[in-house]
Fold each of these.
Amino acid sequence: MSGLSTKILPKTMLDNVKRNRAVYSVGRRLRFALGSRLGARVVPGLSGRVHYNDFMLTSPGQAHVDSYRAGALAVVDLLDESLATVGRDLASAKAVLEVGCGYGRIIRELRDRIPADRLYVNDVIDEGARFTAAEFGARQIPVVEQAGPEWSGRFDLIYLLSVYTHLRTDMIEDNLRRVADLLQPGGVLFFTTHGQGSAETAERYEQYWLDKRKVIEGLAETGYYYERYPYYYSEYGLTWMTRPCVERLVASVAPALEAVSWRPMGVGSHQDLYVWRKRQG
Ligand SMILES: C[S@@+](CC[C@H](N)C(=O)[O-])C[C@H]1O[C@@H](n2cnc3c(N)ncnc32)[C@H](O)[C@@H]1O
């Protein structure tokens, strides 16, 4: 069973199914129900088990496993480098939160650098956060939009990898406002977006419904472009934002954050990386 891929159908067949939202939705529900039932398995080359619903590992083939791990290790290094720019490091972080941890791709590697009892996770996919916490020793907390006041000012590092790349702007604002509350003064925030470089290479996403011209025009006009995956019922899709748009958004909902660095296409050569620090006092 360790050979089960997250995507069971070949891409062209899957795209045809996706054109019928109702059919795709039923198929997806069944696929995830099967994954939930199977749980997790050992995948050679990865430490800790991998959940059958871990959508970040498209198949257990060697090339996919290598790129899943290399991607996570690169993020861990970037977290460390980002902390270094403000005179800190991973080893001395006391409480680290990954918002949108999925099924633990990054925590799986980060726990080699930070004791697991300092790691906290959440995800709107409760199963993903539950699995990550149970498998890797992290603690699950509520999604930040529902986290009570007891979580305010608790974290010295919060990171979101490939989360704002999928949300509508009002959802990003709600999330970011609360993320800024959860940071302690001096705490560091790290998040990624799709920016101009990603828009100009949007064909890499291989989405039959996506018109790259519209993305580039949207960015030129407003600095922002979002389109919901047409085969989903929930509000989740692909989002692009220019740097000025991100800066406006942060200034309006999280003015306590000051910019530390920006690396265009700095993650996986396609996502922009932003690092911020919460002002003291
Ligand atoms: C592309 S996946 C990335 C998963 C993980 N960060 C990684 O890089 O392996 C995006 C994740 O963000 C989660 N997500 C989306 N909106 C969220 C929110 N408001 N709070 C927590 N998680 C969220 C999704 O459920 C999904 O697991």
Amino acid sequence: MTEQSEKSRVGRRGLLSGALAGGAAAVAAGALSAPRAQAEPRPGDACPVPPPRLWTRKQWKAVPPEDPAGVRVEPFGPSLIVVHHMDYPNSTDYSLEHAFELSRICQYDHMHHNGWNDIGQQLTISRGGFLMEGRYRSAEAIGRGGHVIGAQVANWNTAAIGIENEGTYITELPPEAQWRTLVATCAWLCHRYRLAPMTAIVGHRDLNQPDTTLTTECPGNALYKQLPKLRADIAEAMGLPVGDGSPNHVREDLPSTRTGPAHDHGPALGPLDPTR
Ligand SMILES: [Zn+2]
């Protein structure tokens, strides 16, 4: 391990123990303390799977953040990768143009309705399987092994990177193209950040748990039930032991937590989050 990565690791541990002291989810504490050595590539190892093509903010014509200087870029990577559904319609338009429009609509929604500085998540995947950069400077940060703090999982934004999947997956599952991109994206992030898929891949509800004030059904019962398979598919793509895919910890059949119209996948900001 390099001195730099040891520093990052220590920094993350300090951060996470702080977050946990703040009352965050016990299940994640278990996941975070689990061994992660199996995913440790040696320095200089090539990514075992080709990174998926990432469409940039410039390509989907993002507007700048309201306050670009307020976007915080951490030098260390996240410890968790959070899978969301967007609670948007299950569109059958699988085109790139639709994917770009999806990102623009989402950014507008987050900035003008939620009052956030920018689009909340770091990454977005359309139902057609197109991966797009989310929050300002996310692609650059991932490329350097760092982390842009987003607005996607309440109280955990400093420690977690979020992938928003277009669609609503309470009863339906993502289309094949979207699933393939999700697997490839997670494998890329796990490699990039030296994370083990069995412990790093969580659903939004794992961190903002049922029966708390910050609760969500995200990423939907159907997609949440697929997370063990997702972890196994990622591990397989990375050439790691697959095992049982690591079972879920939170109830898989949750009643709907929707209180209003769609486009509300659950709490994205909490008192422990440093930016909006
Ligand atoms: Zn969510």
Amino acid sequence: MTTELVYSTVEPPPVGSGIELCAGVHWLRLPVPGRLQHINIWLLDDGDCWALIDTGMDLPDSRAFWETSLSTYLGARPLTRIICTHHHPDHAGLAGFLARRFGARLHMSAPEYRLIKTLEKFHHDGDAQTARVKAFARDGLVADGELGAAMMLTRYAQVVSPVPDDVAILSDGDVITIGGKAWRAMLVRGHTDGQLVFHCPELNLLIAGDQVLPKISSNIGIYPERVDQDPVGSFVASFKPLIALDPEPLVLPSHGSVFSGLRARLATLTAHHLVTLDRCCDLLDVPATALEIANRLFRGPLDALNTILAVGETLANLEHLLLLGRVSVAFDTLGVRRWVRLGVGDAHG
Ligand SMILES: [Zn+2]
């Protein structure tokens, strides 16, 4: 499915180091636990200083890299701007730490700043944890052990350093100048409420965050703290301005290798989501909870975090199918909701 992509001849840097991808654009890699293993972050030459796009997760290894090899990489020039594509721990985890460590100003979109500030409170906010558990209970999840901790989102604050209260808010269409080059912020939704990707026409580059990855489809889910209730629709709609980029830029994704073939990749991702919608619908010949459908849609066994992600993505598909008029949903007396394909027996209505 990815044969249409052409990968850059520049080899990815080893984790914990960086290389210059092209003039003034440095590709750094930091560790991420689990299947992803790494995140790409981008250090941009800003004349007498540096700007950084995304930061890595707040892990001891990542902090150590910043203190040693990556600080050496920066040399005598200060890091003055930190720009986060979105609130996920691998992207924004070290934003607060680096802002304090280097005296740099943090930039992000308003929806992502709201999310990071909401989530960093969860570990000491019992009411917020209870509300999140209740929300997931509607879909068949029981707050037990590791799954309970994931439902309560208590770990976010362990891998995301608190961010400052004064951040610079970036909006769709804003143009920032880094090293004399104009980068246009594009707000894209679906993976989260307000992810920013950055296009530089002069360099013909797109820093794509998690919106366009070369080998995997990023998680498109519904979660209690999110505003967007149709992320599948939002995700596919966000492709339109990316398809319109002409000429096609070189894509700098957050995971995997730098590649060309943006439109082909977007076409593959759109097809993937249409197939997933059909697969989801096909599984609804009898009423089922989102958890039951998730366990059939995604190959297990799923750990606690991946169970939450699978249920969130299943819900995103179910809500989109509901908007399309292909499914219905009803609550039982215990407050658990079940979904069924319309036109199946007499179960709908
Ligand atoms: Zn993400």
Amino acid sequence: MSRFKFAGDFGAIHQPEYRRMAKDERISPRAFRVHFAALGWANQIGHAEFGPGELAQVLGIGCGRQADKAADKAVTAAKTMGLVLPESGLRCLVLPYTLFQKGKGTVVCNHHRASIAQGVT
Ligand SMILES: [Zn+2]
């Protein structure tokens, strides 16, 4: 793996590691793992999109309405803690550009109908 040179106080994360930690059931509360999922799957505009029921599966909660409800509770807790932006939900977790930036990947969010052309959220 290559090493980077950063300006200011920026560092780097390895997204596959955060995807792994998002799934790690030893880590609690779940709100932390919501944050890890956001970091692990965020695209260039800081949006991490998930399919129906996908976030509940990532968090190891399972499938179905009850699982989605529990996952939604974890997202709400993460929002309350400021770990993801208020516009986050089960279908997309959003990070501010002050917290996460990336040089590669998509620059749109189908869920929020956002794109880099409309400005970075
Ligand atoms: Zn989004």
